[in-house]
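Q: Got a minute? One more chain.
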Amino acid sequence: MQVDWTAFTPVTALAGGALIGLAAAILILANGRVAGISGILGGLLQPRAGDRAWRAMFLLGLLAAPLLMRLGASLPPIRIDAGMGQIVLAGLLVGLGTRYGAGCTSGHGVCGLSRFSLRSAVATVCFMMAGFVSVYLLRHVAGF
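A: Always. Here it is, folded:
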């Protein structure tokens, strides 16, 4: 195994993590809402009165952030080593997992763990283990 040290970016990773934490803290303090992306998107697809604007703004911010980042820094080229079928299947499996897990990695891993939620700790361990096992099986067993 070889490490690509040009991809080691601790400063930008720390800044990104701090911004995610800040956004999650602002949302829960100002709105009383957890910054779980699947829940925010799901609530936008089945909106309640007065609940649509903040959800849309949050999601627009997620889409606008890389575009704004691109103005100030050169981003690495996007490289996806998967076909469209694999991407669609992966998206469907992630969506299914967020429904069964009652939330996504941002809701459980960022917000739930910071609130010392046992359910979120179990969910985050399950997310991580599923990722480890998937990578091992696909890379080392199946050879993809």
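A: The mean pLDDT is 87.
Q: Perfect, thanks.
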